[in-house]
Amino acid sequence: SHEGYIELLPALPADWKDGTFKGVCAREGFEFTFAWSEGKIKSASVLSKEGKVFRLHSLIPFKVQNNKRVTIRKPEPGILEFATTKGQRYDLVF
Fold it and tell me: What is the pTM of this model?
């Protein structure tokens, strides 16, 4: 998250083809739970602890599921972002 955006699994070892992480924290007050299979993200959930804008570097399109309407913006190539509300969880569907 030090580049101003989140990148899930940027350096996944080849031996870790399948797996999950829970409670991974990133800058700007975000906490993640995510799973991958065959080295690719399958699902991710983001908890916003501070209500800041969530920025994700992803070349794979995704949808955001939440009990509120979420508008995803693309401010630059490969970067997707959306506003969050403090305490809300957002499920990313790839």
Answer: 0.87
Write out pLDDT tens, residues 27-69: 999 999 999 999 889 899 999 999 999 999 988 888 898 888 8
Q: Residue 67 in contact with residue 41, Cβ under 8 Å? A: no
Q: How many CB atoms lie within 10 A of CB 55?
A: 20
**Pairwise CA distance, residues 41 & 73, whole Å:** 21
Which DSSP letter does residue 6 get?
A: B
* CA count, 13 A, side-chain hemisphere, 69: 1
CA dist 92 → 13, 14, 63, 87 (Å): 23, 24, 6, 16
Determine the Cα–Cα distance for residues 76 and 15; give it in Å rounded to an integer.
32
Residue with tokens 């979420």: 70
Show the tokens assigned to 93: 């569907």
